[in-house]
Amino acid sequence: MKIGTPKEIYEGEARVAMTPDSATQLQKLGYECAIESGAGAAAGFSDATYEAAGVEIVKTAAQLWKSADIIAKVRQPNETELKRLSKDKTLISFFNPGGNAEGLELAKSKGGNVIAMEMVPRISRAQKMDALSSMANIAGYRAVIEAGNNFGRFFTGQITAAGKVPPAKVLVVGAGVAGLAAIGTATSLGAITYAFDVRPEVAEQVESMGAEFVYLDFKEESQDGAASGGYASVSSPEFREAQLAKFRELAPEVDIVITTALIPNREAPELWTEDMVNSMKPGSVIVDLAAEKGGNCKLTVADEKIVTDNGVTIIGYTDFPSRMAAQASTLYATNIRHMMTDLTPEKDGKVAHNMEDDVIRGATVAFQGEITFPPPPPKVQ
Ligand code: NAD
């Protein structure tokens, strides 16, 4: 069978779902590989490097979709792309199945199979395919780099002949995958880093990365008690008030705030209010990684960088992984390659789409003319 990767058509998207290295691995599974001409260019992979790895270069997206049995891409496919699906073709991509009913219907009517990368269950066995985590890791890292690029001072403290420089103070709100990556990056640059999460169990991880966990003066036993299944849920009004009071206290002190707080299937909680922004020092920077879900900061504008009247820069970009396209493509293509390994148990270049396998079942949102989203709860954790 042939695996093909088209050029991403979402405006500004620089990632690509197949790299020359991943193609080499896919060929070892028995597949032929094809790529649309120029698909890797924005991520730094030329057609020549694919050709050298034995990948066929195809001139147009239409030809690519027609000739490939398996199509691997990054962004949620649009209508034109989905219309190119057909029975016996498998699409592997981010798909946003929870917010893409039309896409699911179209995939169903075309009879194609769709594996949605964001639906890979977050169990240990599937970590190698967990594209949400690999992209969140990049976003967390890049958020700090972006903050540094907009911050007029060092992260690390220095004593120089020209004067003493205090270290920057960084607050990371939300210590999931992206938050932990941001903490690691900020501490490695020498900043004094604080982090907060509603899930108190992450305190140890935060501290092991060299940051200080921010505890609330809150009467209940745990930091929240509202967490479930490793994910956060909505905080109680009392807890939220305690959290906002703590942030109000920290706002004039910190130089950089990276917010990453998300609650599955909801708008992002608003945690950094206008008065907090107003009380920050001029030159401070906020990077809001929750911008795509409405933002954690009241003033965030998605996909934009703004500077407030009191000189605070607020970055609401939603394309952090694409801003590190070479790294993001390498990790994403590896996630896809591992998915293909699980889909090809005989290493014979043929997909065995085993719907009894929890990981494959969990990620499959359309199969043989049926919508298979949402999946049943996994049998094994
Ligand atoms: P996420 O992107 O859904 O949310 C980011 C963080 O925001 C979470 O840590 C959440 O607790 C926090 N948050 C939500 N509301 C908040 C608030 N009001 N204030 C402060 N913080 C708030 O999270 P994620 O990065 O996807 O990780 C979620 C969980 O999944 C974590 O427990 C993580 O360790 C786990 N996980 C497991 C695997 C695996 O086992 N394979 C892989 C990845 C993540």
Automatic annotation (TrEMBL):
It catalyses: NAD(+) + NADPH + H(+)(in) = NADH + NADP(+) + H(+)(out). It is an enzyme of class 7 (translocase). Its EC number is 7.1.1.1. Keywords: Cell inner membrane, Cell membrane, Membrane, NAD, NADP, Nucleotide-binding, Oxidoreductase, Translocase, Transmembrane, Transmembrane helix. GO terms for molecular function: NADP binding; oxidoreductase activity; proton-translocating NAD(P)+ transhydrogenase activity. Signal peptide: none annotated. Its main location: membrane. One of its GO terms (biological process) is NADPH regeneration. Residues 4-139 form the Alanine dehydrogenase/pyridine nucleotide transhydrogenase N-terminal domain. It is a multi-pass membrane protein. It is found in: Cell inner membrane. The transhydrogenation between NADH and NADP is coupled to respiration and ATP hydrolysis and functions as a proton pump across the membrane. Belongs to the AlaDH/PNT family. This is NAD(P) transhydrogenase subunit alpha.
